[in-house]
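Re: that chain you flagged

S.,

Sorry for the slow reply, it's been a week of failed gels. I finally had a moment to sit down with the sequence you sent. For the record, here it is as I used it:
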Amino acid sequence: MFKLRPTHAALFLVSALFAGSAYAETLKIAYIDPLSGFFANVGEIGLKQFQFVADDINKRNLTGGPKLEMVAFDGKGSPQESLIMLKKVIDSGIRIITQGNSSAVAGALIDAVNKHNERNPDKTILYLNYAAVDPDFTNSKCSFWHFRFDANSDMKMEALTTYMAKDPKIKNVYLINQNYSFGQAVSRAAKADLARKRPDIKIVGDDLHPIGAVKDFAPYVAKIKASNADVVITGNWGNDMSLLVKAAKDAGLNTPFYTYYGGLPGAVTPIGEAGEGKVKQITEWHMNVTPNKTEKFANAFNKKYGGPPAYISFYFLRGNIEMYMLAEAIKQAKSTDPKAIALKLEGMKYAGDEGEVEMRASDHQLIQPLYISTLAKAFHNPKDPTTAKFTGKDKEVKYDQENTGLGFKTDARIEAYVTAQPTSCQMKRP
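Prediction finished late last night. Pasting the structure tokens below so you have them in one place:
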């Protein structure tokens, strides 16, 4: 009688578990984001992080079977270019995509994926969104085939304005955002939330500028200075964020910035010391959170990629959560079929590094805790020669960013149940 050796038995078991599915030894995931053009720096950071976490999943065999492989497609930050890339993805047989940079791109991809899946029920595509935060995607435009792992812009604004409302010194607020669905959503939510929580606050400016097209923000900064704003709220990201804060620094603007992406790699360098105590961000994690269960992973990533001149650093904790939850869904489904994975992701609770997160089944929006933090001087530890360039006295700011001597310090942690927002999603399931 034929007997399976232990290694043969393991392979036989894996084959049996994934029988009848779209199983292959390697599951390819298409990464569609800008790898050239104005926002290429952000896209490159995301790609390296996804590759790094995929390697960790493969090393630990967290899927229980197939290895994960990231395949890059340059969407150039353009809806049109990204749709061309999606066609290439489909033609290549890849059935899982991830994207995050630009809600304009995300909206186009959601629509295209829905139409493709309706026409091709045996070749469906699953879309995992790690950073496109237009609230409509988990409300009026929600889709069974779309899962968002970042807090949407309304959730982030709810957290920011709750924190701002406690500061009686804030009387005048200036809004500046990119002129597309996400930037418009940030502006709209800021006005509504502040009016509800602090009706005494005045909106003294509300600018929407072309995305990725402004090379000099000096005219906008001049308007901010003239408005006597107490704070600025901006959802700008990528070079639009970097150039905005650089212009503020050059003009000597001392107004605090409440940002969505002030800590995105590449933003802190142009801010420099002018941002100390003034630039705040809303994120699901930062390098100086306490306790920091992601510290070891982040340090390993930064050691590999973090040197000059780019100073790429770990940023998207939600990207890790996305990939680990995907691996768990594959393991539970015993399949790599997009529908089977989607059904396992719905309602999944996962023990993330910053606490339990939940993929809400009703709209496929991840519910997770958020942090508000402020740029501060990194701590100088006399016992550690690597901190010689640091000048800060606050031990909470253990790590700096981009070799600037500045890092982020937690102001507040907003629990997951607080960040959750109601949804109008009426999801149609296949």
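What I noticed first: The CA atoms of residues 50 and 319 lie 7 Å apart.

Talk soon,
D.
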